[in-house]
Write a structure and sequence with these properties.
Length: 449
């Protein structure tokens, strides 16, 4: 018998053993491997939470902190409108609430200069103290418009400095290998808090009244502070800086300017926050009532569809992990996002609008997640906080842009304004991709630009 025949008979014998005499043990071992692989696949979406206990604590604190922020933004806005009945003053409150984002480069400089964990703790303490004080004033019946505007400003002053520190801390804790997964989980938490927080705020107002709702909602920060307190101090990513604060801020812009990928991401972030995020934040009630003929419940369903789509998109990216074509996915997702907004502007059927908003939420996930991931990947660690601060400045342009788009929509109409904003964003992203081919070619793990 030749060697080939013997090998074939041996293989046949092993196959027979697996199917008969040795079957139960072999089959059980194989099933165990399959179960283990399936379990690993199902846990891929939360990999960064499993491998980094410190990130797990940071993530819990972020969920609770932003849950509190969105809950209280809703309650304070309700109090302003209930007190004044003025849409203008409600819009002014929103401006006060988000104005501190425009100081993003300064907050980013602090994040690179000082201990990031302590900065986040201080932000939590500030938010807790401010909300407790306003709740006490409201119980006393002295919460006038000025107090509520100041509360919105202080709430923004607590959120804005914490965001660059939180984003840079994620890189410090999980590294490059799990960064996309961690940012996707953060985006998932943000989407959930924006959906759940206002709903909780509304329920608390209905049951307890606004002052009690405000006081009770401060419990969010107590949980967030507990999680941060349990974190170990880390000096990762913090380098000794001997420059003046002003030179550090300038250096943050320079770090972005030296990287074609970082610069292109920042430009796309700026375009998106000038053109489409203002539409989502300002025009949705108009679409619901005047264009689609729906009531407040319909508006809630519209926002829920977008939120669910965003959560599905974030979960999908979390499961994918560090895929290679992050730059192309970022640009392509943003282009699809603009196209879907243009189609939504043309829709006059509620069911179609619901589907499109689900797609809009889904397509927004690559933009939201990879804008942060790419910036952290291609920015030197000593400048990551400042890069996040410049990103925050680009995001902070949204309330200003909303005023400009509101003026345009007053004469051109909300649907036409949204349609052209979607198409303009598509064109802007396409120009950036053509002008900066490094963005579409960027792969996870590439060296710093």
């Amino acid at each position: 018998m030749d060697d080939g025949a013997r090998d074939g008979r041996a293989l046949s014998g092993r196959a027979a053993d697996a199917g008969h005499g040795g079957g139960p043990e072999v089959a059980e071992a194989g099933a165990g491997r399959v179960r283990g692989r399936n379990r690993r696949d199902s846990l891929r979406a939360v990999r960064s939470l499993r491998v980094s206990p410190q990130f797990r604590l940071l993530w819990i604190s972020s969920v609770c902190f932003f849950g509190g922020v969105w809950t209280q933004t809703m309650i304070l806005g309700w109090m302003v409108f209930e007190l004044t009945g003025s849409a203008f003053l409600l819009a002014l409150f929103t401006t006060f609430r988000f104005a501190p984002l425009l100081l993003g480069p300064f907050w980013g400089m602090l994040s690179d200069r000082f201990d990031r964990r302590r900065l986040v703790i201080l932000a939590n303490v500030l938010a807790l103290a401010a909300i407790a004080a306003v709740a006490a004033i409201a119980f006393a019946g002295a919460a006038g418009v000025g107090v509520l505007m100041a509360a919105g400003l202080v709430l923004g002053m607590a959120q804005a400095p914490a965001q660059p520190a939180r984003a840079a801390l994620v890189f410090d804790l999980v590294g490059r290998d799990n960064l996309s997964n961690a940012n996707a989980l953060n985006a998932l938490a943000m989407s959930a808090s924006q959906m759940v927080g206002p709903a909780i705020g509304g329920a608390l107002i209905g049951v307890l009244g606004a002052p009690a709702a405000l006081a009770l909602s401060s419990a969010w920060y107590a949980v967030a502070l507990t999680a941060l307190w349990l974190m170990r101090a880390t000096t990762a990513g913090i380098a000794a800086h001997h420059e003046s604060p002003w030179r550090m801020i300038v250096g943050g812009f320079a770090a972005i300017g030296r990287s074609p990928v970082a610069l292109s991401v920042m430009l796309i972030t700026l375009f998106a926050n000038m053109l489409l995020w203002p539409v989502f934040q300002s025009f949705m009630p108009v679409f619901a009532e005047q264009i689609l003929g729906m009531d407040a419940a319909g508006l809630g369903m519209m926002l829920t569809c977008a939120g669910v789509g965003g959560m599905i998109g974030s979960l999908t990216i979390a499961m994918l992990g560090e895929v290679r074509g992050q730059g192309a996915i970022f640009a392509g997702g943003t282009i699809l996002w603009g196209v879907l907004w243009a189609l939504f502007a043309l829709s006059r059927e509620p069911w179609l609008s619901f589907l499109l908003l689900g797609g809009i939420g889904l397509a927004s996930a690559p933009f939201v997640i990879y804008q942060t991931t790419l910036l952290l990947m291609v920015t030197p660690s000593r400048a990551q906080g400042r890069a996040m601060g410049v990103q925050e400045l680009a995001i902070g342009i949204t309330p200003v842009a909303a005023a400009g788009l509101g003026i345009i929509a007053q004469s051109a109409g909300v649907a036409a304004t949204t349609f052209f904003c979607g198409l303009i964003l598509v064109a802007c992203v396409a120009v950036v991709v053509v002008a900066v081919p490094e963005l579409a070619r960027y792969r996870a793990g590439d060296a710093l630009e």
